[in-house]
Structure formats: structure tokens, C-alpha cells
Specification:
Blueprint (H helix, E strand, L loop, with lengths): L6 H25 L2 H7 L4 H7 L3 H12 L5 H7 L5 H18 L1 H10 L2 H4 L4 H27 L3 E2 L2 H24 L4 H4 L2 H13 L3 E2 L5 H17 L7 H12 L1
Helix pairs in contact: 1-7, 4-7, 4-9, 6-7, 6-9, 6-10, 6-13, 9-10, 10-12
Length: about 250
């Protein structure tokens, strides 16, 4: 099922996804119903099913419009002087900020990427979702290769691939650990410091010209936080998501 092709349908699509995220925040993933989403978005059921075939379509689209890779190019354009290691930090910091500004995003992220979910979405949305996931990996890998080219990182192609994996696995585990809210404070301690220290451990085995510091980590964090605040009105918009999809398709 393709994305909406008219302005009127795009507005309705945006309303549906806004309502969906609100319901996930209030009710969780299990309880909300498609008929309730259509009613609160004030659209007819017939119109709803022109946009989304299933709950899986909704979850995939909620993920894609919040996807951090929708923003990397714009952020880099606003901060053209970033070092290679600062660019490597972008996908990491953006992921933390995305889950801070959109509390439902982490839950949607964990569920939507399960193959038992996204494979049940309509074919077009499942393919778009696959492309967006792989774009994230491509950007992390690309930033690491830039660091090698610019002399900030000494690493073989295999080591670049391994570090990209380590970063992505670190993010998945870190977000899940803090979001579950079951693990005692004595095991995790203060979130910001813990996230930084564990990321340092991910970076340490590799040949960085300069080590990752808390000051650098926080400097990029402040910039990304300010970017989110400046763009909060259209951050998770269908228009931005569709523009990224057009780039990938073109």
C-alpha cells in the first residue's frame, strides 16, 4: 500500500499516525483498535483503509516517520564543521533524543523490527521499512569509513563492519534496559553517565586518533537536542518521511 499521493490524504495520514502514537502512549500496543484510531482521527473507515491495511502498517509507518536517518543530512547542513568522530556519534545521539522526545518510539521500534510484525505489513510499506532500516546501517558504516579516510580511525573494512555492529547492538540493548524499568538502580546507575561509559567501551578496542570523551559526547548531544527543539513541529511528519523515501527510490 503506497503512501498518500494528495495533500488531503497526507493530512489525514498524519492525523492517523498522531492518534496512533497517542494511543500507544496511553494504552500500549495491545489495546488500541483500528476503528478507534479512525474515529479519533475523524476519518471514515473507507478512507482509513485507503491509507493502512492493518495495525502492522500503522506500526511500520510510526517507525519510519520517527526514523532518525530522516534528519542526518539536514543536521549536517546546519553543522558543516563536524569532525569525523562527531558524525559517528550522530546516529547514536539522535536515537537517544528520538526516544526522549517521542516516548512511544522506543516501543514501536522494538516491535516493528520483529519479522513477525513487519512481514505482515503491506508489501510497499514492508519494502520501504526494510530500506529505512538498511539506510541507518549504511549511515553508521559510512560515517566510520569517513573517519578512516580522514585519519581519525585506523580500521580495516572488517573492523568497520564489526564496529558498526557493536554500535547498533549497544543502542538496542541500552534502550531496552532503561525502557523496561525493571532493572534495579544499583545495576544501571545514572543513565547519562552509564550510557557514555558503555559507549566508551564500544569505541576503546579500535584505533581512534583521539579517544571519545564525555565533553565531546555532551557537545553533540546538546546540538542534537537543540535541533529537535527547533524542528519539533515537523520532526515526525509524513512529509519528511516521504521525502526520504523519494530519495531512496530515486
Amino acid at each position: 500500500m503506497r503512501c498518500p499521493h494528495t495533500d488531503a490524504l497526507r493530512v489525514k495520514c498524519q492525523a492517523v499516525l498522531d492518534v496512533t502514537e497517542g494511543m500507544i502512549d496511553q494504552q500500549g500496543l495491545i489495546s488500541f483498535k483500528l476503528s478507534q484510531v479512525a474515529k479519533e482521527a475523524e476519518i471514515a473507515n473507507s478512507t482509513f483503509y485507503k491509507l493502512f491495511e492493518s495495525k502492522e502498517d500503522l506500526l511500520v509507518c510510526c517507525f519510519m516517520r520517527n526514523a532518525t536517518c530522516n534528519h542526518f543530512d539536514d543536521f549536517e547542513a546546519e553543522h558543516p564543521g563536524m569532525s569525523a568522530i562527531e558524525r559517528v556519534l550522530l546516529p547514536i545521539i539522535f536515537t537517544f533524543e528520538a526516544t526522549y522526545f517521542s516516548p512511544s518510539f522506543n516501543l514501536v521500534r522494538q516491535v516493528a523490527v520483529n519479522s513477525r510484525v513487519w512481514r505482515l505489513a503491506s508489501a510497499d510499506k514492508a519494502k520501504a521499512f526494510e530500506n529505512r532500516i538498511n539506510l541507518y546501517w549504511e549511515r553508521i558504516t559510512g560515517y566510520l569509513k569517513q573517519a578512516v579516510t580522514e585519519g581519525e580511525l585506523v580500521a580495516s573494512d572488517d573492523e568497520v563492519r564489526e564496529l558498526a555492529q557493536a554500535i547498533t547492538f549497544y543502542l538496542s540493548g541500552a534502550l531496552s534496559a532503561y525502557e523496561c524499568r525493571l532493572i534495579g538502580k544499583e545495576f544501571l546507575q545514572e543513565k547519562r553517565q552509564t550510557l557514555f561509559r558503555q559507549l566508551q567501551n564500544v569505541f576503546k578496542p579500535y584505533g581512534w586518533r583521539e579517544p571519545l570523551t564525555l565533553a565531546l559526547f555532551e557537545r553533540v548531544g546538546v546540538r542534537v537536542h537543540m535541533y529537535y527543539q527547533a524542528h519539533h513541529r515537523d520532526f515526525n511528519s509524513c512529509a519528511r518521511c516521504m521525502a526520504m523515501q523519494a530519495k531512496l527510490s530515486g
